[in-house]
Each structure stands twice: as structure tokens, then as C-alpha cells.
Design a protein that fits this description.
The complex is a heterodimer of chains A (about 425) and B (about 290). Chain A has about 425 residues and is of the alpha/beta class. Chain A is built from 16 helices and 14 strands. Chain A folds into 2 domains: about 210 residues, Response regulator (Rossmann fold); about 160 residues, Rossmann fold, CATH 3.40.50. In chain A, helix 2 runs parallel beside helix 13 and helix 13 packs across helix 14. The longest helix of chain A is centred in the N-terminal third of the chain and has 23 residues. Chain B has one domain: ABC transporter involved in vitamin B12 uptake, BtuC. In chain B, strands 1-2 form a two-stranded antiparallel ribbon. In chain B, helix 1 crosses helix 9 and helix 2 crosses helix 9. Classes of the chains: A alpha/beta (about 425), B mainly alpha (about 290). Chains A and B meet through strand 7, helix 8, helix 9 and helix 10 of A and helix 1, helix 4, helix 8, helix 9 and helix 10 of B.
Chain lengths: ~425, ~290
């Protein structure tokens, strides 16, 4: 008769076998037509769980566009989620597992401010091109050659908020209410510096713990400072709870302005549910990445996004999420770089991603992946101008295109109410000491 | 000063929610010897069950009943299908804690594709805001406090004046002796899961009502102050959990006013650590756990 330990030992055998099998599959290099994988490494659970789906919604239409054109040099492409829970402690094993188990990774997207610092070194060491949605300033001049960022650093978001609040709305007294997570706190320092240098007043700076059942004490303290506007980014249900309590304790909502992360269907649903759609439409504004949501590149993205609703029903809701558009562009850029170099080896095609994004002398502008492949087959170099518009990578593979000031309509669609060009943004950045 | 008084008022609401939840949590431990780390996830699942009904047009108060029934049945089934079989096999307390942690993760990840990652809000009228000095409370918040008081009174009556309550106390004190005295301990434990599950469900709904918006991610956040209040009052002791809820609830809010909101949980846990250093058994544990409730 077997004792418990023996039974446990026997029970471990299939587990170990499965583990070895998983390791074995991961060690196989892509063959001439084997599928390639795009890893979406981001929070899919935890307080920032709303971020992951926005990035997954970028991957699916990109994969569809690529596969409909025959794949990347015959390789079909698919997307897989890797959950970081928004915690570096969970992100590191997730990234290590992703790299160890999938030798066919062509690119990785996601890597938000929650986990980029811990994930980017792993991906860089594994020579995997990454398109990250982190706003951390440590990546402004990064030495990671496989790192790409199609969005500005968070401090630029903060500067754009300050510029919009002062110039567009003429607000002078600002309350800062940001979540106490790494990503949200990245806005606080630059916003405080910019507000001070531009003659405005920070009435209160609150770092609020995410996911609490109430913030009434914090709201009472904030209301006592009588701000003109609240700057905020506190994801999950936190902003919804906070703003509902502002409305309750103040008797009416106050104007509030969000970062580009608040232009998100999940955030809209949460806050509109808590304070009412009309209050949200009337009192809320946000800065967003300078995207026009028009043109052939956007149309191609939108067509593919709508088409993947059968795989991911929420996908069409991300049609105006700047991050979704930009990550879609990043994936297509990587695919076109692979086509140009005729290689699935990242050490070969990584350097060409920048050329595809910025264009080189004589390159032809393409807005669809199929057009890009056709041009490459004709011996031409291509410049990708996709859903998010032109890319302008600098020497650190950072790209940014200015900002727009937006609000929501009653259906949750983004409505542009002002524009900050790249030059205007640069001027505010300079005034803010950025 | 007025901010501190206002924070004290908000603390009354916070402690009411924690009290409902912590009493259920600590009774589960006291009677069934199970530290159920899935408690927060059952709370949020119950809150969503109530939301489904509320969203269909049913009043929040009837929806709360649905949440309570859901929490009761969910907890009962959780014990019958997962916890009890492991306990029968002799899995030790630490092993059971790990199992409950795994159950918590499973519930959260099963819930996510069902309800989505969207935050939701109950359809309810918060009623007029009532002022008493610097304290301002909505009608709903006062109702939440009333629900907590009623729940506490009912738990007191159950443990003191009913045969089931006395059987629960006997089972908590010594299950073998209780069984030998003719008490059907297995049935008592079933009732304990149903009753504490109902408290868990009610706590989830009132937490959702108070926060104006909730999502799956709130489950793990709910659990932290509940455990703190239970341990502070003396693990397994319902009245200790009530006192723990008062301390944790008020410390959380008043420290947010006095220090900084970022550290409000830190302040509450500092109080917990202090009590644990000075009185490791918890505030009321000298008089025993659930068995000595009366």
C-alpha cells in the first residue's frame, strides 16, 4: 500500500511531464512557415485590468491584417495574453515564462508603467522587439535597443494637461488626485513643477489607495481647498468612487481632467455609471495622443478591429483608444521590417523597424499591410503611416506627435475640443522644465 | 478639526461594512476552523449577483436579499465541494489556507470573463444628505449602518437564544465532545457556512452600495481590513470582530484626515501590529473564541 508521500510523488509525474513538454515546445525555433506569436504582456487582472484588453484589441486587428495578406513571409501570426496583474513581482515570472516557452515571439506589446521597468530588461536580453505603453521618464533615453515607444512619456501628458487647463479653460487652482500606483504617480511631479512654473496653484496633492470602498475623507479634504479643477488618473473603479463622492459631498460635480489613460471605454463605463453620463460629459475633459481617427490607415485598422469582434466582442469599443491604435501600428511596423529584411530573426529586423516607422530616402508611404508587402515585393522601401498617423522615432526609439484636448459624448465616443501641436507641446514642456 | 470630525462620521460607515463582513469571517474560522481567504471573492461575487437583479429593475434592498442568498449558497457549496473533503482527509490549517487562496484566485479568474473587467454601479437613490455638525451622511449610508446594527443584533440573538447558536458555540469549543453529546456537528457546520455566507453576501452588497462603483478587483481589497478586524478582535470571536471593525474603520478614515490618504491602511495596520505586540491573542480572546461568546 502506498503512503501519502508516494501518492503525491506519483501525482507529480504527469505534472512534471507536462512541464517538460511545455519546455520542449518552447525550444523549437520557427521553421519556414510555422506561426509567429505576438505577446501582449499587460495587466489583465488586478486594479489596472482595464489596460490589457485595450492592448489585446490592438493585436487582433494587426494579426488579421497580416494574416489576410498571407502572413509575414508565409508565417501566420497570432496573439496571446500574458497577465502581469500590474505588479512587477508578477510581471517578471510572466515575462520569463513567455520568453522561455515561446521561441516564435516576433514582438511584444503592452508593458505599461506598472511593469515596464522589470519586463523591458528581460525582453531586451532575449532580443525581442517591444512596443511599450509606459510613460516612465527612465525610458526617455533608454539603452534598450529592442525598446520602442509610440507614445510620449507621462510627464508630457502632465504638461499637456497643465497647458490645456491654463490656456483652454483658464483654470488657476488645481487639485491633484492620482492613484498611488507607479504609473499614475509618474504624472504628479511633472504636473506640480509645470503648474508652479506657469503661475498656477496646486491646492492639494492626494495619492489615493486604489480599490477602496470609500474616499469621503479624502474628498472632504480636497473640497476644502476649493480647486477650479481636479487632475486625475486612478484606474479601476477608483475614479468612479471618488467622483461620485465629490458629487455627493459638494452637491454637484467639479470640473475634472484626466490623462490619456482615462480615454478608455472601461473608465467611461465606470465613471458614467457612478456620476451619470450627463455629469461626465459636462465636467470631464482629458488630453489624448494627437490622433485624427481618420485617413486610410485608420480606416484599415477600423475595418480589421470591427472584424475581430467575433474573437473579442469588446474590440470595437477601442476604435478611439490612442494606445490601441499605436500598438497596432507597432506590430505592423515589425511585420514590415521582417518582410523588408526577409528574416524572422529579431537581431536582423529590429533595427529596420525604425526605418519603417520614420521612412528612409525614397521610401513609399503605405497605409495597409498588404500595400506594404506589395511595395516590398517591388523592391521598394516603405514608410508605415497607419492608424495613429506618422511615426517620428528619435535615437531612443521614442515617438510622439502632440496632443489633443478631448471630452466624451453621451455614447462614450471621444470628441476633440482643442489641439496642442507638437510645437505647442514642446513649448509647454520647456516652460514646465521638462 | 472639522475634517477629523467628518472623517469620524465616514468611519462609522466604513466600520459598519467591515463589521458585517468580519463577523462572518471570524465565525467561519471559529466554528469550522477554516481561514477562508476566498471570503473577499465571495463578497464580490455576491455583489455582482445582486447587481444582476438590481440592473433588471429590482430595488437595491430586494437585491441585497438576493446577494445574501447567493453568498449563503455559494459558501455552503464551497465548503461541501472543496473545503470539507480536504478537511476530512486531514489537511492541516496551513494547507487549508493555501487551498482557500487557490479558490480565491479561481473565483476571481472565473468571475472576470463572466462579469467583465468593467466597473458597475447599483441603481439606487442615495437619499438626502443629513448633516450633524461636520458629519454628513447620505440616507444610504445611514441605512448601511442600520443593516450592520440589525445584523449584529441577530448574530447576538442567534448565539445566545437559539439551540442552533448554542450548538455552534459547542462545536466551536470542542467538536468531538459536541458530537459525543449528540450535537449533529456536520449539520451545524452546514448552517454556519450558510449564515456566514449570508453575512458575506450582505457585506459585499453594502460595500458596493457605499463605494458607488465596484469591479472584480475589489474582492482582494475587501479582504484586507476584514482579516485585520478579525485578528485584532481575537480570531474566532464575533464580538471581538465587531470591536476590531470599529478600530480599523475609524483608524482608516481618521488617519486619512490626520496624516495622508496614502497611508490610511498603513495606519490601521500599525494599530493591528501594536495590539498584536501587546496582546497577541487579540483584544477579546482571553475569554476564549466563539465558544465563549455567551
Amino acid at each position: 500500500m502506498l503512503g501519502n508521500h508516494h501518492r503525491i510523488g506519483l501525482g507529480l509525474v504527469p505534472v512534471i511531464a507536462l512541464g517538460l513538454a511545455a519546455c520542449g515546445s518552447g525550444s523549437t525555433a520557427p521553421t519556414s512557415s510555422s506561426p509567429l506569436l505576438i505577446g501582449v504582456i499587460a495587466p489583465f487582472t488586478g486594479p489596472d485590468a482595464a489596460l490589457g484588453p485595450a492592448y489585446f484589441a490592438a493585436c487582433l486587428p494587426a494579426a488579421r491584417a497580416i494574416n489576410n495578406a498571407g502572413g509575414v513571409s508565409g508565417h501566420k501570426v497570432s496573439c496571446q495574453e500574458f497577465d502581469t496583474r500590474g505588479e512587477p513581482a508578477d510581471a517578471v515570472p510572466a515575462a520569463q515564462q513567455m520568453v522561455a516557452s515561446h521561441s516564435n515571439l516576433m514582438a511584444v506589446v503592452g508593458c505599461t508603467s506598472d511593469e515596464a521597468s522589470s519586463v523591458a530588461p528581460i525582453l531586451n536580453q532575449a532580443h525581442i522587439p517591444m512596443f511599450c505603453m509606459t510613460g516612465q521618464s527612465e525610458f526617455n533615453k533608454t539603452s534598450f535597443t529592442y525598446f520602442h515607444r509610440l507614445v510620449p512619456p507621462d510627464e508630457f501628458d502632465a504638461f499637456a494637461m497643465v497647458g490645456s487647463a491654463l490656456d483652454h479653460f483658464n483654470y488657476k487652482k488645481v487639485a491633484l488626485v492620482f492613484g498611488n500606483d507607479i504609473g499614475s504617480q509618474a504624472f504628479v511631479g511633472p504636473a506640480m513643477t509645470a503648474l508652479k512654473n506657469l503661475g498656477a496653484t496646486v491646492t492639494i496633492n492626494q495619492a489615493i489607495a486604489l480599490g477602496q470602498s470609500s474616499y469621503r475623507t479624502e474628498v472632504t479634504a480636497m473640497l476644502a481647498t476649493h480647486p477650479d479643477v481636479i487632475f486625475t488618473e486612478a484606474l479601476g473603479p477608483t475614479d468612479a468612487t471618488y467622483m461620485a463622492e465629490v458629487k455627493q459631498l459638494n452637491g454637484s460635480s467639479l470640473p475634472f481632467m484626466g490623462t490619456s489613460a482615462t480615454i478608455d471605454p472601461v473608465w467611461f463605463a465606470a465613471v458614467s455609471g457612478a456620476i451619470g453620463v450627463q455629469d461626465l460629459v459636462s465636467n470631464f475633459s482629458a488630453v489624448d495622443l494627437g490622433v485624427t481617427f481618420s485617413g486610410p490607415g485608420y480606416d484599415e485598422f477600423k475595418t480589421n478591429l470591427d472584424a475581430v469582434a467575433s474573437q473579442f466582442p469588446a474590440a470595437p469599443k477601442y476604435a478611439q483608444r490612442g494606445a490601441t491604435l499605436h500598438l497596432y501600428d507597432g506590430i505592423i511596423q515589425a511585420a514590415l521590417a521582417m518582410d523588408e529584411t526577409k528574416s524572422v530573426d529579431p537581431t536582423v529586423y529590429n533595427a529596420v523597424i525604425k526605418d519603417v516607422g520614420n521612412g528612409t530616402t525614397g521610401s513609399v508611404t503605405v497605409n495597409t499591410y498588404a500595400a506594404g508587402v506589395a511595395a516590398i515585393k517591388n523592391g521598394q522601401k516603405v514608410r508605415w503611416v497607419g492608424a495613429g498617423g506618422p511615426t517620428n522615432y528619435n535615437q531612443y526609439n521614442n515617438s510622439q506627435q502632440g496632443y489633443i484636448l478631448v471630452k466624451y459624448d453621451a455614447s462614450g465616443n471621444e470628441v476633440t475640443i482643442g489641439t496642442l501641436t507638437q510645437a505647442q507641446t514642446a513649448a509647454i514642456i520647456a516652460a514646465g522644465g521638462g | 478639526m472639522s475634517l477629523i470630525v467628518a472623517a469620524f462620521g465616514f468611519g462609522l460607515v466604513t466600520m459598519s461594512i467591515i463589521a458585517i463582513a468580519a463577523v462572518g469571517f471570524t465565525m467561519q474560522f471559529g466554528i469550522t476552523n477554516m481561514i477562508n481567504l476566498a471570503y473577499g471573492q465571495v463578497m464580490i461575487a455576491s455583489a455582482y449577483a445582486a447587481y444582476a437583479v438590481n440592473n433588471a429593475g429590482v430595488s437595491i434592498w430586494l437585491s441585497m436579499v438576493v446577494g445574501a442568498v447567493f453568498g449563503a449558497l455559494f459558501s455552503f457549496l464551497l465548503n461541501r465541494t472543496i473545503y470539507a473533503p480536504f478537511q476530512r482527509k486531514g489537511t492541516n490549517l496551513i494547507g487549508m489556507v493555501i487551498i482557500s487562496l487557490a479558490v480565491s484566485l479561481v473565483i476571481a479568474n472565473v468571475l472576470l470573463p463572466i462579469v467583465g473587467y468593467y466597473s458597475v454601479s447599483y441603481h439606487l437613490d442615495t437619499g438626502p444628505t443629513l448633516h450633524a455638525g461636520s458629519i454628513a451622511l447620505t440616507g444610504v449610508q445611514i441605512a448601511i449602518m442600520a443593516v450592520a446594527v440589525v445584523a449584529m443584533v441577530l448574530i447576538y440573538a442567534l448565539l445566545h437564544f437559539t439551540r442552533l447558536g448554542k450548538a455552534m458555540r459547542a462545536t466551536a469549543a470542542n467538536p468531538t465532545l459536541a458530537r459525543n453529546c449528540g450535537i449533529p456537528t456536520a449539520r451545524v457546520i452546514d448552517f454556519a457556512w450558510l449564515i456566514t455566507g449570508a453575512l458575506c453576501g450582505v457585506a459585499g452588497v453594502v460595500a458596493g452600495m457605499n463605494s458607488d462603483a465596484f469591479s472584480v478587483a475589489n474582492g482582494s481589497e475587501f479582504l484586507i481590513p476584514i482579516i485585520a478586524a478579525s485578528v485584532l478582535g481575537g480570531a474566532g470571536h464575533p464580538y471581538g470582530a465587531m470591536i476590531g471593525a470599529v478600530i480599523i474603520g475609524e483608524m482608516t478614515e481618521v488617519s486619512a484626515a490626520l496624516i495622508t490618504p496614502e497611508y490610511k491602511q498603513v495606519a490601521a495596520f500599525a494599530a493591528l501590529v501594536l495590539v498584536m505586540v501587546l496582546r497577541p491573542q487579540g483584544l477579546l480572546a482571553k475569554r476564549g473564541t466563539l465558544a465563549a461568546a455567551g
